[in-house]
Structure formats: structure tokens, C-alpha cells
Amino acid sequence: MTHAIDISCAIGGKKLPSLIMNASGPLCTMEDHLRALCQSSSGAVVTKSMTIEPRDGNPHPKYADLEYGSVNSNGLENLGVGRYMEVISKLKKEFPDCVFIASVAGLKEEDYYNMAAEIGTVADLIEVNLSCPNIPGKPQIAYDMEASDRILKTINTKTQAPIGVKLPAYCDPVFLKEAADMLMKHELAYLSLINSIGHTVHVDPLTDETVIHPNNGRGGLGGAYIKPIALGQVHAFYQLLGNRIPILGVGGVYTGRDVYDYVLAGATGVQVGTAYMQEGPAIFTRIAQELRNVLAEKGARSAQEKLGMLKIRGVNT
Ligand code: DHB
Question: Could you say which of 9, 28, 98, 132 is catalytic?
């Protein structure tokens, strides 16, 4: 009876019926996208990263499917915080059980505080995106520990809503430790690991052109290519943070087995980006069932039971 297997999780004091949700980015910009997520089995509804003002984002083509994933340089196309306040308020009435996570991406520091103060009154949680790689002239803030520290400290004074943080990959143990030490100073509902890997190039062999246009053809890489990198970040942060901050794994989740790998590495939940873009909202039901099947094969009655249970080859437990 695999349906009896518990794949719920708790984030920021909210119980989510499924630990599998959408990642901020694909198919979560427009009201219709968000409604489709409310109607799906996604464990929560995560919005596209919003800015103070609406934005058209970068010129097309700005997204491409690749053999093992996707590349994007969307440029923060979004409806603006004011419209997301209206949309979330409306959808909350239609879908009172849905948990809404509003992703915010400031173009300057004050924007984070102003958006949090507003959207935190309607959304259940806020995902503070410190890792957008696609805005020309704007850094991925999470590589600046002092700025990140300041933003997380101040944003928590501006809203009652629990705060999650979206981070980039730190592929060096010194930076991982520095980031973990900084993050532990703050009250955080979760870490979302990881954002797309920025500034990657993909060549169309027919035309010798890059497959996307903006940013000199360079964009954020997602999908199967980045799963080992994301799993490494989940595993490293789980070891550094213990159970102090729940982790949501993002990167190359296509199947229940992918989710299971993330749980083993230390993820309380996962967010699905490229595969959701490619398959649409029905993916959440499919992956949830596959995860239940994997857990059943392993003799587990809940996903939680397997949290952080990754074994290291050659180490006897
Ligand atoms: C965009 C891409 C990201 O990876 C992100 O975190 C935020 C915004 C974008 O290009 O719109």
C-alpha cells in the first residue's frame, strides 16, 4: 500500500502534504501558472522571483531545452510585487489549503525589505533569492557574505513570514563553511540549494550560434547536468548545519529516484525546475508516486526516515 507512505514535510511551521514542489522560475510567473500549480500535487506553490516593478525581462530567445537539461536567461520577467499580492490573495481564497512561497529578488537591498514587508502579509513564506545569475551588472549577492548577512538580518525585522534562502553553488569547502556560519546567525525556514549554474554557453551546431540571445548568449544551467553539483551542496550543508535549517534540493529532479537521492543527501524536500518546465503540472503526481515506490522497495514508511542516510563507500555504519 504505497499510498500509506508519508511524503509530507514541514517547512517554516507549515505542513506540506508532499515534499515535492515547483522551483521558482519556470511556469510560475502568470496567474494561470500559479492556479495550475494550486490544482496540481505540488507540495507548495512557489512564485517566480518578483521585483518591485513589473519587468518584461530579457529579449527572446531566452530559454532552451538541452540534451540533459535547460539554459535560461529570463531576466526576471515578472508581474511586480503589487500584482503578486493580489494574485496570491485571490488564489488563497480559491485554494485555502495551498501553501504559497513568494520568491523575492531585489535589484537593490532596500527592495528586499520593501517587498518582504508587503508580500509577507499574504504569502505563507518568503524565498529570498540571493543567487539570480542573469541580470547584467548585478552580482549574485550570495557570493558577498557581508551583504547576504545584512539582507537576512534586516529582512527578518520587516516581516513575520518565515524566510527561506535560495543559494548558488559554493564549490569550495572554505566558502561552504563561511556561508554556513553566516546562515546560522539567522532564523531561516529553509535553504533552497541550488540556483542554476550561471554564465554557461551552449552552441547550436547548425548555426554556430549560442542557443539563447541575452547576456552574450550565456545563461543559467539547470536539469540533469547540475544534479551532482546540487547533491554535493545539499550533502555539505546538511553536514555543516545538522538539523538546524531544513534544506530543499533543486537540480535535475526528474524521477522519484532523484528525490530519494536528495533525501539521502539531507534534503527535507525538493523543488523541480527544468523537468516541470518540460512536463508541466502533472509531473508532481508522477514523481510523488515514484518516490513512494522507491521508499516501499527500501522498506521505509516515510521519506523523513531516510533523511541524511546517504552511506559513504568503504565506511561501515
Ligand atoms: C532569473 C534566473 C534565476 O536563476 C533567478 O534566480 C532569478 C531570475 C531570471 O533570469 O529571470
Answer: 132
**Among 134, 113, 6, residue whose Cα is nearest residue 63:** 134
Dihedral, CA of residue 129, residue 134, residue 138 and residue 139, to nearest 10: 70
CB of 273 sitting under 6 A from ligand 1: no
Q: pLDDT (tens digit, 0 to 9) for every residue of the chain, 317 residues total?
A: 676 999 999 999 999 999 999 999 999 999 999 999 999 999 999 999 999 999 999 999 999 999 999 999 999 999 999 999 999 999 999 999 999 999 999 999 999 999 999 999 999 999 999 999 888 888 899 999 999 999 999 999 999 999 999 999 999 999 999 999 999 999 999 999 999 999 999 999 999 999 999 999 999 999 999 999 999 999 999 999 989 999 999 999 999 999 999 999 999 999 999 999 999 999 999 999 999 999 999 999 999 999 999 999 999 86
Cis peptide before 194 (omega within 30 of 0): yes
How far is it, in rounded angstroms, from Cα 296 to Cα 305? 12
Q: Is 132 noted as a catalytic residue in this protein?
A: yes
CA torsion angle 31 33 34 38 (round to 10): 130
Pairwise CA distance, residues 200 & 217, whole Å: 8
Domains of the chain with bracketed CATH: 2-59+77-199+224-306 (3.20.20.70)
Pocket test for ligand 1, best of 134, 143, 195, 226 (most atoms within 8 A of CB): 134
Cis peptide before 61 (omega within 30 of 0): yes
Dig out the grid coordinates for 150 from the structure: 545584512
Cα(33) to ligand 1 centroid in Å equals: 17
Please tell me whether the overall predicted TM-score, pTM, comes out greater than 0.90 for this model. Answer: yes
